[in-house]
Amino acid sequence: MRILLIEDDVKVVSLVARGLKEEGFAVDLAADGEEGLLKARTEAYDTAIVDIMLPKLDGLTLIEELRRENVNIPILILSAKRSVDDRVRGLQRGGDDYLTKPFAFSELLARVQALIRRTTAVSEPNSLVVGDLSINLMTREVRRGDKAITLQPKEYALLEYLARNAGKVVSRTMIMEHVWNYNFDPMTNVVEARICKLRDKIDKDFDTKLLHTVWGAGYVLKEKS
């Protein structure tokens, strides 16, 4: 899942971006409204978190412009304004949810997850299953059959992304953007290196292999037919 955080408060950015990345999200940052508007127009995001008081272009105007252009990304508004009128105004101008500062990260995370559940075609599942591999999205526990598999945060994020696209080939570029939040760099081998480590953990000790390389195209997580 990829999130756009449009916020100019360095402390808030540090807290939210770090927390979301630890939860397996890819996070793009924008420090002013104009930059945020450009990114929201040109990139695909699962959710945007938008502060109201932004330099260059305020958050409510940014949201109104996105809605006018039929950009339907779910938006969580952040604001120090706590009155009912302020919350109503934010929602009426195109926000999907409203969170007042200061806030607990756990509440922000729950609201982001709720927005994603609400706006996807199907309800957010509690788990993902590919063959005998299971991923508990609530506890982040991974198992193959009866064996528990311990993954590092990026390995987990990579596996979750592959599992959410099970049966589909995902390219190195797509993985870099959604898992590492990098623009594509053809010279880096970070994807191949992490795929190798992930394959060792989920496939090495099992007869049936699930993680496959599609040469010239990318990778796919599936049971071989």
Brief summary:
With 225 residues, the protein is an alpha/beta fold. It has helices spanning 10-22, 33-42, 59-68, 84-92, 105-119, 153-164, 172-180, 190-202; strands at residues 2-6, 26-30, 47-51, 75-79, 97-100, 127-130, 133-136, 142-144, 147-149, 211-214, 218-221. The strands form 3 sheets. The protein has a 5-stranded parallel beta sheet with strand order 2-1-3-4-5, sandwiched between helices.
Q: What descriptors fit this protein?
A:
about 220 residues; alpha/beta; 5-stranded parallel β-sheet; 4-stranded antiparallel β-sheet; 8 helices; 11 strands; about 40% helix; about 20% strand
Report helical residue fraction.
Answer: 40-55%
Distance from first to last alpha carbon? 28 Å
The outline comes out as elongated
Characterize the main sheet. 5 strands, parallel
Query: What's the oligomerization state?
Result: single chain
- For the CA atoms, what is the radius of gyration? 19 Å
Low-pLDDT residue spans = none
- Report the total helices: 8
- Strand share of the residues? 15-25%
Mean pLDDT: 86
How do the strands line up in the largest sheet? 2-1-3-4-5
Please count the beta strands (DSSP E, at least 2 residues each). Answer: 11
Return the string of H and E elements: EHEHEHEHEHEEEEHHHEE
Computed structural class: alpha/beta
Can you offer a commentary on this structure?
The longest helix is centred in the middle third of the chain and has 15 residues, at 105-119. α2 runs parallel beside α3 and α6 packs across α7. This protein has 225 residues and is an alpha/beta fold. β3, α3 (59-68) and β4 form a beta-alpha-beta unit. It is built from eight helices and eleven strands. Helix content is 40%, strand content 20%. The two termini are 28 Å apart. The chain has a five-stranded parallel sheet with strand order 2-1-3-4-5, sandwiched between helices.
